[in-house]
Design a protein that fits this description.
With 118 residues, the chain is α+β, with helices and mostly antiparallel strands. Helices cover 42% and strands 25% of the residues.
Length: 118
């Protein structure tokens, strides 16, 4: 779902953002059946909206409050940097985890020499 925000203090500024809408529905009571059940099909089940929550992602929040999109661009750069650090940590920590699982105590059947030398 998409919305366009406009700030009335800043002319010609609009911000298209996407959002997720969470609806809570309640089933409405169905009318009593008629005396002749063969005359009409059963009425469809109706639902009414009990509550609605609009959820915005962090990037959309920054897009709205950053008039010139500078904060939004900074957030995107920060997310790419954080992803890069996570991948780097996984690459550097992978061999350490392998040694801990296979030699230090995770694999009791084989010792360190058997694991490393084959």
């Amino acid at each position: 779902m998409h919305q366009t925000f406009k700030i009335w203090l800043i002319p010609f500024y609009n911000c298209p953002v996407s959002l997720t809408t969470v609806l809570q529905l309640i089933e409405s009571p169905s009318p009593p059946p008629s005396s002749d059940p063969s005359s009409q099909p059963p009425p469809p089940t109706l639902y009414h909206i009990k509550s609605q929550n609009d959820l915005y992602q962090t990037t959309e929040f920054f897009k709205f409050f950053s008039v010139f999109r500078i904060a939004w661009l900074g957030l995107v750069v920060w997310q790419f940097l954080a992803t890069g650090f996570c991948v780097l940590g996984a690459l550097l920590g992978g061999p350490v985890s392998w040694v801990e699982e296979n030699a230090v105590g995770g694999n009791k059947e084989r010792g360190f020499k058997e694991v490393v030398l084959g």
